[in-house]
Amino acid sequence: MASFTFPRDFFWGASTAAYQIEGALEADGRGPCVWDTFAAAGRIMDGSSAAVACDHYHRWPEDVALLTQAGFDTYRFSIAWPRIFATGEGRPNEKGLAFYDRLVDGLLEAGIRPMACLFHWDLPQALEDKGGWQGRACIGPFAEYARVCAARLADRVKDWMMLNEPNIVAIFGYGQGAHAPGSTLGEDGILRALHHQNLAQGAALRAIAAEHRRLTLGTVVNIQPCRAESDKREDVAAAALWDAVWNRVALDGIMRGTIPGLLIDRMSGFVQPGDEQAIRYPIDLFGINYYSPNTMKHDPGAQFECGWGDPRCDRRTFMGWPVQPEGLYQQLMDFKDNYGNPAVFVSENGAAYDDKVEADGSVRDSDRVQYIRDHLESVARALKDGCNVKGYLVWSLLDNFEWAYGLSKRFGIVRVDYDTLKRTPKDSYRFLSQVAKSGTL
Ligand code: BGC
User: Which of 5, 157, 283, 353 has its CA 20 to 30 A from that of 198?
Assistant: First the structure.
């Protein structure tokens, strides 16, 4: 591709999540979340925990400096619900709020736009004990938590994202059990978790909007094209059904206030009158997390009879995920063509690789550089074709606690030495920094 210049107001930066970087899990009145319980039950593959992670809770000034030095203008972080409400509800914890005060002030002093995400998977354990996302117990508490965070920070934080990837929480947390809370409730559990997160999101959006004007309200979805492994009728049907589950419950819910036709019968047992209206909301900005497409095939033994197919792709990350940057283009265009071209941004994109560390501590991660470059080309193409893309945030600023994989998979553009907690920018950091500073790819 010839060189491409991004629009002047295109924003650049990085995303992180509280649980993956903060550490300090017992500091200042934080309560336990489902991931603490999951880790304590021995469910993290490398036996590690997020107890220290990147120790961002104490080292955040260093991390803000990394953002500034990169020339980034935007930073998406998540607020840890259990730091604000130890049991998910009740009285807010002043010390937890004070931490995000400090972080936000530090970001603003550094000239970086703070973008807060309210739920990146750290559901307070006490709420899970009340049924978690399987029922309606979390909806009211989530709306109140959103209201409290905005009341405290919205004088300085203008961009608010409600959820991060409700589909991953639903499928892996409640359906298949590979993520916290580790439930294996199958299809019904997945659909219930999706629906109740949708409802909580609608309630939180309304709770914030009732008290604040002129904020940018949004949410973050993990959207992946669902392709059929072959032209066989049952593979095509499997891909369509998986698309409904993976992508459309969240998208159609908020954008159209509808439940995908393929799922109406399966969801009729728990959808109540008025739910669709409560879910629909005219948000200002959509965050799209993109890693790779889903290739599906008919598999009678799998949930929804949708099995993972073979994407026929030699290029893979250290997660084993196929590298198919055109999927990002396709996904961005899906927003343009099917949802009225709303304002969107890439809220996560990046890759884990088996980084080699040189004797001087440097990391020449040319594969990650290439991954980011190729995906930026897809963003550029979508912009050229009229898609309303506003910015690009890489996943992630730092190597961090990669959920069930623990510390064994590194997604950072900055290396973290988990013994010393020293941060060392990788080549990918320098590459993205150069694109951000010049606005040119
Ligand atoms: C999540 C991140 C995660 C990344 C890589 C996304 O699904 O939002 O928390 O680390 O993917 O797996």
Answer: 157
Tokens coding 318: 């250290």
In the prediction, which pLDDT does 438 show? 98
Q: Output the CA torsion sign for 388, 339, 342, 168.
A: negative
For 218-256, what is each residue's pLDDT tens digit? 999 999 999 999 999 999 999 999 999 999 999 999 999
Compute, in angstroms, the gap from residue 401 CA to the centroid of ligand 1.
10
- Give the ligand 1 atom nearest the CA of 291: 11
Ligand 1 centre to CA of 403 (Å) is 8
Cα of 315 vs centre of ligand 1, distance in Å, is 19
- Catalytic status, residue 187: no
What digits encode the pLDDT tens for the residues 87-144? 999 999 999 999 999 999 999 999 999 999 999 999 999 999 999 999 999 999 999 9
- What pLDDT sits at residue 2? 81
Q: Which two tokens stand for residue 242?
A: 């998986």
**Ranges of each domain in the chain:** 11-438
Query: Is 348 a known active-site residue?
Result: yes
Ligand 1 atom, smallest distance to 168 CA: 7
168 lines ligand 1 (CB under 6 A): yes
Q: Which numbered atom of ligand 1 lies nearest the CA of 400?
A: 10
Using one digit for the tens of pLDDT, what is the confidence trace for 393-438?
999 999 999 999 999 999 999 999 999 999 999 999 999 999 999 9
In this prediction the pTM is 0.98
Give the pLDDT confidence score for residue 360 in this predicted structure. 85
11-438 adopts what CATH topology? TIM Barrel (3.20.20)
Instruction: List, for residues 357-378, the tens digit of each pLDDT value.
Output: 999 889 999 999 999 999 999 9
